[in-house]
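Write out the bound-state structure for fructose -6-phosphate.
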Amino acid sequence: MCGIVGYVGTNKAVPYLIEGLSKLEYRGYDSAGIAVNINKDIQVYKAKGRLKNLEAIIDMDMDSVIGIGHTRWATHGAPSDVNAHPHMNQTRSIAVIHNGIIENYMEIKEWLIHDKQVEFVSETDSEVIAHLIDYYYTGDLLDAVYKAVDRMQGAYAIGVIAKQEPNRLVAVRKDSPLIVGLGEDENFIASDIPALLKYTRNMLLIENDEFVDLTKDKVTIYNSLKQEVTRDVYEVTWDIDSAEKEGFEHFTLKEIFEQPKGVKETLMRRLNADDEIVLEGVNLTSEILKDINKVYIVACGTAYHAGLVGRRAIENFAKIPVECDVASEFRYRDPFVDERTLFIAVSQSGETLDTLQSLREAKRKGARVLSIVNVVGSSVARESDDLLYTWAGPEIGVASTKAYTTQLIAFYMLALHLGRLNGRLDMVRYHETITELKNMPAKLEVVLGQSEKIQKLAASQFNNEKVFFMGRGVDCDLAYEGSLKLKEISYINSFAIAAGELKHGTIALIEDDTFIVALATQNALYDKMLSNIKEVKARGAHVFAIAKAGNDQILKTADEVFFIPDTMDDLAPILAVVPTQLLAYYVSALRGNDVDKPRNLAKSVTVE
Ligand code: F6R
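---
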């Protein structure tokens, strides 16, 4: 998704802008641009494609102490130099960067064209912002931005500079992320923290409908009524190093290997010396829980797949009925949510618009909102009643890996906690599960220690264009995640099915050398999976199975088997997902893809 940065200070702005944009690359983009103000002349440089194309046409030493920069992920209009941001008004006195979508841009555009004779140059929705601000501009940029925003509907994080005010940067936010970085004699804006971490650890998290007026020595935040608001400085404690590759070829691989650490952090920060779960940030009591008769888990993509596993965990451990839905569907189906519902939002970024809007919808209907989020201070986190952070650390690879396993840990802990609160979970099972959760970091290391096996498998299958994932029970939920990971970074048309559904249609597609990833980690469903594997083998498929150590019978049935360490059925997804992540990674790398930044994808989906 688009990323924005801005700088106002005493140093030359361009290196800051380029560095900031490079840290936003992981969000996904197809063009980039900057605008600077040199002696009251706004100069704009834009280039389609990677940031290096932009760097090739600019002078890093340009004499400007203010500037804005943008990485664009095309929505309205193809990726091109013209459609890239910043956009300008006709007299080139105002430059604008925008992340989000202006929903009523057509109406504004038509008005500007017909009534105000404005000529547009791009196909974007964002260009209207520059012309609107120009229309209202009478010497005070903040005032003009207020008036322009008043006419706009949609989602936006906007940064603006004006030729006549060479020391002022104005920004505004609604439903798209925006943070301010505070420096000495310099201040910054950005879409997220990693873009600024090289320069400052002191951030202001900007809320919806807030405007920010920045000069080199002052940052003022205003609400929609133009009243000044105060904001505590958020000091970032995690290190920039955790957002570097540290010798791994790709962030995605590094993040797969960081899972033991993320899992340990997410778990151990919440267990006291007696193995009691202490969920700081979750204020659910047994009294409150008595009134809750239903749980809704809502998320997108990989976070949704974690939610599917979470659903089973809550049903198994706490015996509460759970529904799990993708956010883009939940929002539009008038769901049965009321004040007796616990709504759980799951999101790595905490900025996914569909998830955020679903959360708001659930709140409107009276639900209590609990969120499982990785990015501290993100919108989903801030708008929730109860909050469980996953301590995965920054996830830079577009494909979500370590966020998923830490989301699973958060769900298991929540499920155990709810089971204890409502008295439906016995202590023996509780302690057994906690003990096994504590074994997970070490068991994950064992799985990762066998990564070469997956590398070899990838070398033999990376050109196979027919891939299925199948499983039963929680392995079916995992099949969806394995398949998504493979398709998003390898571009192979893989898909996932409940193994029991094979005979109801999909088996017609199985032919010689179809590659099947069979997840067979569930003891209770093991024999059934063996039968499913035989069925596809009989039709010529090549089967790679993932099973638990000790379940050797599968060696006679599948072509290749990856054994994860033995564990409880409930917790097996934590381990079994790893070979599927490694498979997707190695296949993608062998196909020469940009693993960390797969085509057409964005890390943080802040539009619908
Ligand atoms: C897949 C992936 C996406 C995200 C989805 C939700 O690897 O990364 O499917 O899981 O866009 O994003 P968050 O978790 O940030 O809400």
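---
The two ends are 11 Å apart (CA to CA).
The CA atoms of residues 65 and 209 lie 27 Å apart.
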